């Protein structure tokens, strides 16, 4: 099983949570001051009214000052439960627009498989995955699939943080290494995560074994799929590929992203079209 190939399929489905016009409209209506307050409020909400220090720790690669511009002020705008409500509503609206029909047997089948995988994801040392899995499951299949993808995504992310810590790669250093590895614009990466030029330059030349981090991340992300089994995992891939391609091709907000994620290029299959 290839953990990265699985990630390429569930990450675009999860990303509608934050990076769509529907998501931004939902947090603007809540009273958020800017998109990043909405992002930190929605993503951190499963943890409760978390402090900026806690969120900086678990999100890992954001500069502390960037988190502090949004938190704890976000909790004065609305409660964590309200952020959970609007992130589900924004994801629902975005998925309906991007996918057209969401009431299909294929989405229902993908949801059942993804839920089984998400329930098999280990939670020890994975705070964001654990906090999301503790939330109620949505009833509608396309949102059940979204919730499962969110748990799987955060479980992978928590494992990635553990791999970075084990390799001694700090938050800004990780971004600098990743930017160099994937030919990403350093100025864009600094801005996206709130680091200064001076902070970036201080770590830019530091060594770090990013391939080892990626291997460890992939290994730590395999257990849900091993529990699901080869047949179920293969079927999940088949079901999610057209969904990921449709979402990625239509979601303008994710054309450029700090993950260097390009499902349209990496998952394109002969004869596929939107």
From TrEMBL:
InterPro entries tied to this protein: HTH_67
A Pfam family hit: HTH_67
The name this protein goes by in its record: SalK
Naturally occurring in which organism (per UniProt): Lentzea sokolovensis
